[in-house]
């Protein structure tokens, strides 16, 4: 089924939250435990916070929508520190993974911020599938960080 990538609107918040809840459980419960995965989802993805991000300046809040209407992907990036572009979230529904959608979302984010020449993101330590994906996108590990007790790897690439 064809999938369109577009800027989000307020009606997308509920399906994006559902997508994030499902993917936080699938991705982080095996690494951090289900309770912690749920706690982090609730901390970072409150509906009001996501709604503010849609309107945020120098940022892109994208969704990937199947022709039938289902939201199967979401990505959010901020260029507030341009020329540094910061990828905050990139999530593709399990049923839609390995079909190039993550790559398309990532390219769409970069294309919307041509004033940036370096991209940074964090991957939770132990999320080996995401690490493999970002390595395939020419990112390299440049450091580590810890936020809310979660250890992450910092990845970067040039434009
Ligand atoms: C990581 C994620 C966004 C990748 O999206 P995707 O649409 O599945 O990725 P693509 O189809 O564009 O993959 C492109 C390439 O990345 C690599 N790759 C992607 N997923 C991979 C995996 N699970 N294992 C190994 N390599 C992988 C492959 O080289 C792939 O090319 P190929 O399918 O021709 O072999 C998606 O798997 C996802 O949402 N995962 C759960 C949430 C998550 O971890 N998000 C990232 C948080 S930092």
First-last Cα distance = 30 Å
**The named CATH superfamily:** Gcn5-related N-acetyltransferase (GNAT)
The CATH topology comes to: Aminopeptidase
Strands, total number: 7
CATH class group: Alpha Beta
- Major beta sheet, strand line-up: 1-2-3-4-5-7-6
Low-confidence stretches: none
Structural class: alpha+beta
Structure description:
The protein is of the alpha+beta class. It has a single domain, classed as Gcn5-related N-acetyltransferase (GNAT) (Aminopeptidase, 3-Layer(aba) Sandwich). The chain has helices at 13-32, 34-44, 47-55, 101-111, 128-136, and strands at 3-7, 59-66, 71-78, 84-92, 118-124, 140-147, 150-158. It has a 7-stranded mixed β-sheet with strand order 1-2-3-4-5-7-6, with helices on both faces. The longest helix is centred in the first third of the chain and has 20 residues, at 13-32. The chain starts with a strand and ends with a strand. Bound molecules: coenzyme A (COA). Coenzyme A binds at residues 23, 27, 90-92, 97-103, 123, 127, 129-130, 132-133, 136.
